[in-house]
Specification:
The chain is mostly beta strands. It has 2 helices and 38 strands. It has a 32-stranded antiparallel β-sheet that branches. Strand 2 and strand 3 form a beta hairpin.
């Protein structure tokens, strides 16, 4: 530590309770030799391991809540099997919010938690409650429950500090009992789904799923597995109730066979469903099947050029035939059938000297299309899709995607190009001692540069439709440099070349000040336009000076 220290706390009166705590009053915070903050008293825990004690308060401010004091409370470690946390959060614009959490666990048997928050507001109580419980009475039987309940639809958005909770507009509460055995299982589920934005609740009372063991035939190359599901659902939407019940099941036969140089994958599936919706009965059945064949062919070329020792062409053709038919309340629908195929070409090279030469996928070209064999199909041929990709270096990746159509003005014609896209990305970084990343902000669509002493990431995308009716063209990048051990600078941008405007950009500067650290982030354009500056103690980040403008 420097002498004199950069900062320190001073108290003229202290009481030390061995292996427990230190009580000091008053406590003055010094920056160098200048007193900046005085507190009437403070309690510092010095007990090792898990133990009861006062929580460390958090101070700060946000543009939404204003200034705040959070995490004022006490932690009770009552035993090795359960604990309780009680705390209060005070916000300038939201008010006082009380919160608590109870956790319990018994190894190999059960564990869970109960937590929630509470706020008194204008004569009404507002709250939320979260429950979690998992229990294994004995091997093969498991019970788990997870629930989230709120007093009103806007509580999470108005009160909770966590942005993830604020955006949650669908609450799910589930209790499941699972009995499993080798190759199968039986489960019963009770569930409530509450949609906060449209005043709707949905209850599953209950939902059952049965999965039987998988049966094998033909030397364990053919597999058969049946399943059964049933459920009863009650829905309340805008004060009206509706009921429906459903019973469904299916069974399938699949395989993975080898025939000479080819791999065969046949499958056959049959399923049905019966449903009662507010007294109306309906049922449906479906029969489907597929048959696929694929293989891989190799061609080796003894090419010697520089560090290249050999070249190999990998050819991967595949063909798949699918068909299905369904019945609705006894009325059959037309057969659906299709055939699809793909052809993948890979050019690989082996280069390098010594006992461990490297393999590189130099070029990859793939084609795929299909044909609709259904009787009433108007356009039978699917678009021809072509993908070309090359990575001549590990840091460079180039890709082109094309789509050709076999129809023009609804009539069959020669293939013509409908749209194409080009993608390029470059990632390079300097060698040396890795730089630990401080907390970084996010620019939409921008990747962070490498973690070495310097790094650069550039990516571009161009897409255009036939006839020039639509075009997308953008470039993104991020550059990072560490000029000294105490400085880190990063610049990120997202530029739309099609519209000729900067979508987002950010400048990030980090300065290590020994026991302090300073961060400056500035977005001159985009949705997060503004800046944020903070100077704080590393070991006590709650003690800080910060300024912000915009949506930071």
């Amino acid at each position: 530590r420097p002498d004199p220290p950069h900062y320190h706390f001073y108290s003229p009166t202290m009481k030390i309770i061995l292996n427990d705590k230190v009580i000091a009053r008053p406590v003055v915070f010094y920056l160098g030799k200048v007193p900046l903050l005085r507190l009437p008293f403070m309690i510092f825990p010095i007990r090792k391991g898990r133990h009861s004690g006062w929580l460390r308060p958090q101070y700060g401010s946000t543009s939404r809540e204003g200034r705040y004091i959070r995490n004022v409370g006490y932690y009770l470690a009552l035993s090795d099997y359960w604990d309780i946390l009680l705390r209060a959060d005070l916000y300038e614009r939201v008010g006082l919010v009380l919160a608590s959490r109870l956790r319990y666990a018994l190894r190999y048997r059960f564990r869970g938690s109960i937590e929630g928050s509470w706020k008194w507001e204008r004569g009404r109580r507002r709250w939320d409650l979260k429950l979690r419980h998992t229990q294994t009475p004995y091997p093969g039987l498991r019970f788990q429950a997870d629930g989230h309940f709120v007093s009103d639809r806007e509580y999470l958005r108005d009160v909770r500090f966590d942005p993830v909770l604020r955006m949650r507009r669908t609450l799910r509460s589930t209790a499941t009992l699972i009995r499993s055995w080798r190759g199968g299982g039986l489960s019963f589920t009770l569930q409530q789904i509450r949609y906060l934005d449209r005043d709707e609740d949905r209850y599953s009372l209950p939902r059952m799923s049965l999965s039987l063991p998988q049966y094998t035939f033909g030397g364990k190359k053919l597999y058969f597995r049946p399943s059964l599901r049933a459920g009863y659902t009650v829905t309340r939407s805008r004060g009206k109730w509706s009921h429906d019940a459903e019973l469904s099941g299916d069974s399938g036969l699949s395989g993975n066979l080898r025939w000479g140089w080819a791999r065969l994958s046949p499958s056959l599936r049959a399923g049905g469903r019966a449903r009662w919706d507010d007294g109306d009965f309906s049922h449906s059945e479906e029969l489907s099947g597929s048959f696929g064949v694929r293989t891989t062919l190799y061609g080796l070329f003894p090419v010697t050029w520089g560090s290249i020792q050999a070249a190999r062409h990998v050819l991967q053709p595949s063909l798949s035939l699918r068909g299905s038919r369904s019945w609705e309340d006894g009325r059959p629908s037309p057969w659906k059938a299709s055939i699809s195929g793909s052809l993948n070409n890979i050019l690989q090279v082996k280069w390098g000297r010594g006992k461990r030469p490297k393999k590189l996928d130099l070029l990859s070209v793939s084609f795929s299309s299909g044909c609709d064999l259904s009787p009433k199909a108007s356009r039978r041929l699917s678009d021809l899709r072509t993908s070309v990709r090359t990575s001549p270096f590990r840091s460079l990746d180039l890709r082109a995607d094309l789509r050709h159509s076999f129809y023009r003005n609804g009539k069959l014609s020669r293939p013509y190009l409908r749209d194409f896209s080009l993608t390029a990305s470059l990632r390079i970084s300097g060698k040396g001692k890795p730089v630990p990343r401080p907390e970084l902000s996010w620019v939409p669509g921008v990747e962070t540069a490498g973690v070495g002493p310097w790094g650069l990431v550039l990516s571009g995308y161009y897409r255009r439709e036939a006839g020039g009716t639509g075009r997308t063209f953008w470039v993104r990048g991020s550059a990072q440099v560490q000029p000294t051990s105490g400085w880190r600078v990063r610049y990120s941008f997202n530029y739309d070349l099609g519209k000729g405007q900067m979508v987002a950009q950010e400048i990030y500067v980090y300065r290590d000040l020994h026991c302090w650290e300073a961060i400056f982030q500035w977005s001159p354009s985009g949705m997060r336009r503004g800046y944020y500056f903070v100077l704080r103690i590393k070991e006590l980040p709650e003690i800080k000076i910060e300024r912000r403008k915009g949506v930071w």
